[in-house]
């Protein structure tokens, strides 16, 4: 059986990272901030600037905005759910092609009622459900349940710390997904992409991060020294590996 060619999504935290992903041939970006916390909702200005960069490159379906109000787990109170809905509407109004969301119940199941609210708020924009699936009690059943909603794709490591450990579960998710796209993400390395493609995933997701100390010392109160940047070589290698996985 010939493996499908997965699309490549890059998690980026700035416009420079989005431009690198565009130039390297990635299918889309997940735009966020604070990847060290697992990713949080980016600012309105960052969304607007990234949408403009994609438009200048005539890239369609490219900008997908993570909407996550805080770090920690995925069980949200009413005010937090309201914030997510407002941020979804704001991201779509600024031109985002899709949003990346998720929520769990106190029992550790996917909060399908909350996700249905997110789908309504996004209107015609794509919905990706993020790795809240991997924190759920039954990840494969969670993916199957998403197939009943108007969700485009799910980002998952197969319920494991990384995609290599979750490979068998990823295969089970693909079998249970119906029309839902399964995107493998979580510790993806370039050599893993061929195995993930062979497992039948529709896409792979990675941050392709390096670190820079550009900007000088942070000083007292400025946080840690240095910050994340997108590594062009890693993005190009990921795109090439996906194409070679045919």
Automatic annotation (TrEMBL):
It is found in: Cytoplasm. SUPFAM superfamilies: CutC-like (SSF110395). It comes from the Bacteria. The keyword Cytoplasm applies. Keywords: Cytoplasm. Its main location: cytoplasm. HAMAP family: CutC. Belongs to the CutC family. This is PF03932 family protein CutC. It comes from Agromyces humatus.
């Amino acid at each position: 059986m010939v493996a499908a060619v997965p699309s490549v999504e890059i998690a980026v935290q700035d416009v420079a990272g989005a431009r690198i992903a565009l130039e390297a041939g990635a299918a889309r970006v997940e735009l966020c901030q604070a990847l060290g916390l697992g990713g949080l909702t980016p600012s309105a200005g960052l969304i607007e600037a990234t949408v403009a960069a994609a438009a200048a490159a005539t890239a369609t379906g490219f900008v997908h905005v993570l909407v996550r109000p805080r770090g920690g787990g995925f069980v949200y109170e009413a005010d937090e759910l309201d914030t997510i809905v407002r941020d979804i509407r704001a991201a779509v109004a600024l031109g985002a092609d899709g949003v990346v969301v998720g929520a769990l119940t106190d029992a550790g199941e996917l909060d399908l009622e909350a996700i249905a609210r997110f789908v309504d708020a996004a209107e015609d924009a794509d919905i990706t459900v993020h790795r809240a699936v991997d924190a759920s009690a039954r990840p494969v059943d969670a993916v199957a349940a998403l197939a009943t909603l108007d969700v485009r794709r799910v980002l998952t490591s197969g319920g494991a710390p990384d995609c290599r450990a979750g490979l068998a579960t990823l295969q089970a998710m693909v079998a249970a997904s119906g029309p839902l796209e399964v995107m493998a993400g979580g510790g993806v390395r370039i050599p893993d992409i061929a195995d993930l493609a062979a497992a039948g995933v529709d896409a792979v997701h990675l941050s392709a991060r390096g670190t820079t100390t550009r900007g000088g010392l942070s000083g007292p109160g400025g946080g840690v020294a240095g910050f994340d940047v997108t590594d062009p070589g890693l993005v190009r290698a990921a795109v090439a590996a996906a194409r070679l996985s045919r």
